[in-house]
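Usage

Read records sequentially. Each one opens with the input sequence:
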Amino acid sequence: MSLGMRRTDVRLSEYDSEWEQIFQAERARLAVVLGERAAAIEHIGSTSVPGLKAKPILDIAVGLWTMEDAASLVRPLEELGYVYRPKSGTPERLFFAKGPEECRTHYLHCEVYGSASWRGQILFRDRLIQNPQLRQAYQALKEQLAAQYPDDRQRYTQGKESFVQQVLSAP
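and closes with the structure output:
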């Protein structure tokens, strides 16, 4: 499998078309567990953008119709190997990680379908896919930050925030 890295590390891998196949298989497993509670299951993050270097961890967004019964998803998702990380999300999102800390393979973001956060993740992904110059600029930034913060995922992520906001606020 071409996925997996330690939770705190920052290492970029060349794009691997296998990532989409892994996502499709995981999406099918998630759909069975989530059933009608999920409006959509989307591949997000850099592994979803063909040609873009990425940390080899698959990000998946689950759009829920409502967060009211989201807590009832914890046990079924744990049965699929996900670990609920209550302090890693925001109040309007449940966050799960799959794989041991030394080899995380998946991140699962459960939030309300159509919310501002949901729309932002999908829009950012789609703009990177559609615009090669934007994709190259983002990759250059990621490479610079990965070299600067190879052991500090938080600072690496913070370093990308301004770029992400610019992309999302563009017409």
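Summary fields computed downstream for this record:
- Strands lie at 38-44, 58-64, 82-84, 93-98, 106-112.
- The chain is about 40% helix and 20% strand.
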